[in-house]
Amino acid sequence: MGGWATSGLMWSAVVSTASVAWVWFGLGGQAYYATPLETRAYAAGHALLRPSGPIGQTLGMLGALAMLMPFLYMARKKLRWLKDAGSLRGWLELHLFCGVTGPVLVTLHTSFKFNGIISAAYWAMVTVMLSGFVGRYLFVRIPRSIRGTELSRGELDARADSLRVELAQSMPSMDLLRRVDAFEHEVVPEAASLSFVNLFFGDVGLHRRLRRFARDLVSGGLDAGLAAEVAGLMGERATLLRRIAYLQKTRTLFGVWHVFHLPLVYLLLVIVVAHVGVTLYLGYVPFRW
Amino acid sequence: MVRPWLRLIVLAAAAWLVAGQPAEAQLGSLLSPGRLAKGHANLEGLANCQQCHESGRRVTAAKCLACHAPVAQRIQRRRGVHKDVTDDCVTCHSDHAGVNGELRPFDPKAFDHTAATAFPLDGKHANLAAGCAACHKQRTYLDQKTDCVSCHQDVHRPTLGSNCQTCHSTTAAFDELGTGFDHTKAAFQLTGAHKAVTCAKCHANQQFKGVAFSTCASCHRDPHRPAQGAACASCHASTDSWRTRQVDHGRTIFALLGRHQKTECAACHKQPAMRVKPKSDTCASCHVDVHRGAFAQDCRSCHNETSFAKAPFDHATTKFPLTGTHAPLACAACHKSLAGQATLPAARRVADFRGLATTCASCHADVHQAQLGASCETCHTDASFKVPSFTHATPAPFFAGGHAALTCSQCHTPQGALGVTQPVRTGVSLVAAIRYRGVATTCVTCHQDVHLGQEGAQCESCHTIDRAKFSVPGFAHAKTSFPLTGAHETTQCALCHKRETAAFPAGTGSAVRYKGVARECRGCHQDVHLGQVEARCEACHTTTVFTIPKYTHRNATRLSRFFIGAHTRVTCAGCHKPATGSFPAGRGTAVRFAVAATCASCHTDVHRGALGPDCATCHRL
C-alpha cells in the first residue's frame, strides 16, 4: 500500500519542485513575481512568464492537461469497457500525481495574479486538490485488496485473527501476551467512544505508544530482533483493529467527501473551458508568442 | 454515493460568487484576466472586449490608435517619444493589471526631455521640484503646449506680446532680468546705480511700456526741503551714487569753513536725501555738547571751525590767566576730565571745565608736604619751580663765609631731615620731601663730625665759617698739654695726629686722632738705640736737633785713665759702631753703647797675639 500510495505523490513533489525551481531561479521568476501587479507588465520576466507568454502559457496548458487526467481515472472506474486498462490503483496514483502537479503548474501559469472571476476556478482547483489529500487519507483507511477492491468485514476479521496467531506464536511468555492485549485495549477505541478527532489523529498516538512499548520490551530483557517483530505485528494488528472500528464512520465521511470533491471539479472544468475558449478566440494561440 | 442535493448546494454557492452583478459584467469579469486601469475604465465589460481585442489577432495597434489619435499622429510624423515605434502597442503597454495598473512604462528620471521633445528642460526648467506635474497638469503628456503662457501667467497683461524670450530666458528667474533683458535697446539707458535696481522699482505694476523717464522726478522723489528744483544733475552728476561733492555749500546758509570743508556729507546729512537740511543754527545740531550744558550754546565764543582741540580760547578772560609755563600747557594738563577721551566716541566724551580752583594745589602736588603753607607764590613764580631769590630769615652771620655760596639744596636735602623719601606726585619723577622748616643751625645738622666726638660739639672753638676747608688758624698748640718747641713747631700736624680706625667718643670709626696722642718722645719717635739707654730721651736730645751737642761720658771718673791722649780726640762713633745683634729691646741693628774698655775691642792686633793681650806693656796713650 505504501509504495503505491507514495509513488504518485512523490513524483508530483519531484516534478513540482523542479518546475518551481526552474521558473523561480532559472527564468527570473523570483524577481518577476515580486514585482507589483500594477507594473509587472514592464518587468524583465514578463515576456516569458506572463500567462500568455511562452513559458506561462505552456505551464497553463500542461497544468490543464494534468487536471484532465483524473477524468480518465473516473472513466476507468465508471466505464466497463475500460475495466482492463490498467489497475485501478495505478490509475489512482496517476490521479494523485496529476492532481498535485497540475495545480502547481497552473499556479505558475497565473503568475500569482488572481484577478477576476477566473480566480474562482483557481481556488476551486486548489480546494479540489486539498480535499484530495483528505480523500486520500480517508481512502487508505478503508482496507482494500491488492487489486483495489474493498475487503469485507469477514476478511478483515480473518486478517486480524491471523495476526493474533502470529503474535501468540512469537510471544515468549503468556505474561507478555497479556500486556499486548492490554495495549490493544488502550489504543483501539470502543464502539461507544468513536470520534472524528481520534479517527484523524489516533494513529499518531498509536505509533508513539508502540515505540514506547517496544523500548520497554528491550529493557525488560527481550531480544531486540524479537521485540521489533512483536512491535511490528502489534502495530499492524492495532492499525487494522482501529480501521475495523472506524470502518463505518470512514465510509460515511468518504461519501460526503465525494460530494465535495467532484462538483468543484465540474465548476473548474466549465470555467477553464470558457477561459481557454476565449483565449484562443482572441488570438492567444499556443506557439504564436 | 454522491447525493444530488449536495451537488445543488455546491453549484448554488458557485453561482452566488458571481451574483450581484449584471449578467454581462459577470461574464466579462469571468473571462477578464483582471480589471482595466483607470484610463480604460470606460472599456470595462464583456461588450467592450473587442474595442481593444480583435478576434484571432490579440490587441492590434490599429485598435489602440483609433482612440489614441495624438499618439497616432506622432507616430505618423515620427515625432516625440513614439517617433521610432514600429511594433504593436502591447509591446510596451499592458493592461488588465488592476485599476491602478500602470499603462505607460515611463521612468521620469530616465526620460530625456530634450531628445524626445521639442522643448528642452534647461535653466530654471531643469530639476523642477514638482517634477513632470509642474507643467503636465493633465494625465496625458501630449497636450502640453510649449508657449510660456501655457504654464506661466502673463503678468504684463499682454502689453508686451507673446514672445517672452525677448526679455526672459530659462536661465534667469523672472525677477532677475538684469541678466536677461538688454536694456540698451530701451530708450532709457541704465547707467551707474540704475543697473542694480530691480525692474519693479521703475516698472511698477509690471508696466514696461510708456514708463516716464524724462526727468529724475519721474521715478525719484525730491527729498530736499526746500525743494532744489528739477536740475538734480547740477549736484548729482553721476548715477553711480546719490553721494556728491559737487554741492556748492556756499549756496546754503551754512557755508563750509575750516574742518567742515573736509567733513563727509553724511557726517551731517545722516540720511542725505531725507534730511538734507540739518539745523545749522546751532553747533549742537551736529556736535555733541561734551560740556554737558555747562556753557551757553555759543560755541563760537571758544571754538572755531579749525579744530575743537585748538580752540582759540582766551584764558585771560578767566580768573586764571595763563602765563609763564602755564601758557603752553594743553587744556587737559589742568582740566583732567579731558584726558584719556581721545579714543572715546564724541557722544561719550565729557569736557567739564567747571570747578577747577585757581590755587596751585588744585593742579600741583605740594612736595613740601604743607611745611611752607599754601602760598606757593611766596617762593615760586609761574616761570619755573626754581626759586630765583630768597632772603633767608635766619641771622646774617650764619650765611657768611663758606655758607654764603651754598645753594638751598645743600642744606635742605631730601632726606634732610624728614628722613623720608616718598613720592608726592604720581606720574612724574620721584620728588622727595625736603625739609625747609625747623632745620637746626648747629654745624652737625649739615656737617659730619670727622673727629668722632674727640673735640665735643663746639666746632667753632677751632673752626670758623670764614675759612675755607675747615682750616683752623686760631688753634694754639701752646694751650695744649704739649706746647710745640724746636723742630716740633714746624712739623706737620699729620705727622703726630695720624688717622686711625679705633673707638672714639662718638663711636668706632676712622678719624684723625687729636685727643690722647702720647706726649713722650717714643709716642712719635722710634727708639733707634733698641733699649740700650734709659727712656728719658731728653737726657741726651733736645727738640731742636737729635744730635747731641755736648756729652759727658758716663762713668767718666772710672774711665779717667781711658780718656787721655789720643782717646780724647776720638768721636763717639770711633768706638760705638753700629752692630747687628741682640739688644734690650730685641734683636736688631743699632749703635752699640756697651763697649769693652780693652784695646782689642777697637784696635786690630797686628802682632797676631804673638806679644800677648796687654798692649800697655809697649804702647802708651
Tell me what the structure shows.
The complex is a heterodimer of chains A (289) and B (621). In chain A, helix 1 (2-26) runs parallel beside helix 6 (88-110), helix 7 (118-140) packs antiparallel against helix 11 (224-281) and helix 8 (153-170) packs antiparallel against helix 11. The model of chain A is unreliable at 1-5 (pLDDT under 50). Chain A is mostly helical. Chain A is built from eleven helices and no strands. Chain A is 78% helix and 0% strand. Helices cover 12% and strands 5% of the residues of chain B. Chain B contains 13 helices and six strands. Chain B has helices spanning 4-17, 23-31, 49-52, 61-67, 69-77, 113-116, 199-202, 265-268, 331-334, 408-411, 443-446, 493-496, 572-575, and strands spanning 53-54, 58-59, 499-504, 507-512, 578-583, 586-591. In chain B, a hairpin with a 3-residue loop joins strand 1 (53-54) and strand 2 (58-59). Chain B is elongated and about 210 Å long. The interface between A and B is medium-sized, with 33 and 34 residues.
Secondary structure layout:
The complex is a heterodimer of chains A (289) and B (621).
Chain A: H1 2-26, H2 29-34, H3 37-40, H4 46-49, H5 54-78, H6 88-110, H7 118-140, H8 153-170, H9 174-187, H10 196-219, H11 224-281
Helix pairs in contact in A: 1-6, 5-6, 6-7, 7-11, 8-11, 10-11
Chain B: H1 4-17, H2 23-31, H3 49-52, E1 53-54, E2 58-59, H4 61-67, H5 69-77, H6 113-116, H7 199-202, H8 265-268, H9 331-334, H10 408-411, H11 443-446, H12 493-496, E3 499-504, E4 507-512, H13 572-575, E5 578-583, E6 586-591
Antiparallel strand pairs in B: 1-2, 3-4, 5-6
